Amino acid sequence: MNPRVSQASMLMERGRYLEAEALFREAIAEGVRSASVHAMLGLCLRNAGLHAAANDELKAALAMDPNCAYAHYALSFLSPPTGQRRTSIFLGTCIKHILRALELAPNDVSYLSRLAQLRQQCHQWKQSLEPIDAALRLSPRNVGLLVQRAEALVHLGRREEAREILQRALALDPEASSVHAGIGWAFLRAGDHQSAGEFFNEALRLHPDLDWAQHGALECAKHQYRVYRVLAYPSQRLVHRPLLRFGIEIGIAVIILLAAFAVLFWLDPIVRPRWGGLPTALLIVPLLVLPFGLQFAKEPLFSWLVRHHQSAQLSATSPVVKEHAAKWVLGIIVASVTLLFFALLHYSKSAAVFALIGLVPGVTSLGVTIFDVPSGIARKWLMIFSMAVLVAGPILLTVLRSFILDLDPDPRSAILLCVPAIFVAIVSNRIKQKDIVRQHNRMLAASRKKVLPE
Prior knowledge:
Elements: H1 3-13, H2 17-29, H3 35-47, H4 51-64, H5 69-75, H6 88-104, H7 109-121, H8 125-138, H9 143-155, H10 159-172, H11 177-189, H12 193-206, H13 211-222, H14 226-237, H15 242-275, H16 278-305, H17 317-347, H18 351-357, H19 359-372, H20 377-399, H21 401-407, H22 419-451
Helix pairs in contact: 1-2, 2-3, 2-22, 3-4, 3-5, 4-5, 5-6, 6-7, 7-8, 8-9, 9-10, 9-11, 10-11, 11-12, 11-13, 12-13, 15-16, 16-17, 18-20, 19-20, 19-22, 20-22
């Protein structure tokens, strides 16, 4: 094996992907043509978030050798294009690649573990046990596999068996951060968030960047609130019974709705003759909205409440908390503005009201520009664009007022007011992607100097 490739492989195993990438590129530049080298380079790029470049390297690997098992293994790690979710269809494609890798190398423990991981991401907990058991026959003391098996057993309702496996894994390797995180999740699902927090803290002491432990620590922080513990109870305790959990959640929502209608039939005849329908509406609407609010606002609200907690400042949790906090604040603003405009349009359809509504496109695009667009020339141009929309919006809505009133459009068409902000968000995303590439290239150049001294 080429010395650079050998050194890069060792760096990659230690998680030093940038330095490994520099050596892989140098080996390719020196004339090393190997499908596995391109595949490993693809995994390094994937780890850096450069998914398009990673895909190109993996395609090059398969073009050299369609039967390269490692290339198929690497393809199972690719993320969907920016803005798309990891749907079951996308995960199915990843599973096809890892199954092909296992056809070519059926006794590779890493490939079997990856298949189990993908099965679990698809919530195919029972199917994940087969590759895990096959891998454990090859490597019975593999702590990572034991943690995977315990996680599957928890979701299958076999909690005691899962605890025994985690205790066995802890005995095999007391310094294994993933085992401490697994035990933390086991305690959390049992309703003991304080004990869970101790294990998550120990896992983070051993491995500060372990995403699983970071998310667990964040969950423990949110579990300090009794309301959150009540709301999270079905999802935590019934993690292995999704249909029952869904039934309970629907049942609670139905009970709340029935209570709202009962209050309506009881109060309306008493209240309406004296004060009209407004007091009844003020009582009933919150009850009707409550089931949906609890479902969609739970995570944003409690993520916002724990935003200053230490667990919310970690590398994996900080972006999640910021995203949830932004959703919470944005949701409040949107709801408030919607109610305000609804009230204004109900009492008046004057030119002044339409001019006020015309401020929405400019204000939203300006908000996206200020809070989301990275600094630079593009940000200045988008600021100018947003200010122009802010000025032009009220004028256009005032001029088109008569036409809009005659047209009487569907109220849902008001979403068109957000089109300028959506445009700014798309441009912002492209700028961020370019910034990631530039930053990566700078870090790669520094790593090349480190591992390739002149």
